[in-house]
Amino acid sequence: MQELRPLAWTRAGFVDLCHPDSRVFHDRPNVARQLSGMNRWNSVTQYPWDVGQHSLLGALISPPWLRDAFLWHDAHEIVIGNIPHPVMLAYPQLLELDHRWSKAGIEFGLGRQVDDNLLRAVKAVDNFMAALEAKHLLNWPSDQLQAHLGVSCETYRDLHHDIITPFSLRVSPSTLYRLFNNSPNPDAVWNGLIENLFGTTGGVGMMRETQYAVHKLLHRVGCCDPEDQAIDALFKVAP
To answer: Is 11 within a domain?
Structure first.
């Protein structure tokens, strides 16, 4: 009996799951469409919350040098699906497969190779987003966030702003399509999007505080960039 190969069907045809293939990302609008139709947290959130929304909001709270990388960090899920993290922890090979495909998606979106510092920064923001979602979409108390997501007391204090609800009510799939299609996007596009999504509700202040919380987190985990000095100046603190 012939041994079956681990192939996945994509818009680009069959791809070998063991060897990340950038062809699956060439249809950028399709990447946005598929991520917009893929719910996170096994759909147990208070209201629908998809991978596209997660990727976009995480990009908005990231420092400028990290935004497009975070936008693309889950693009590979159009191939392997949104596998719950506890499942990947139970099967380390799945976790390693996820990392390799995620890196391939980020490098395609940025049009260049990326280093470990950027990948660690993406992971730190991803963990922050998971904690933000668990608190405001799943109503997890602080002890659950600490036990299951490893959230520190300092990070927990930075989760108090619910920026998810106003964002989810205003973001449209077409916004995601444009960002993926034009990536990497200039800072003016990202800043204008923040103003459009949060300015009408007085939420720009909440967004900036959340951005600064992420900025502090990246410093704590040693994922810094020279551009971060501009953020330090914005919040008038020492680097």
So the answer is: yes
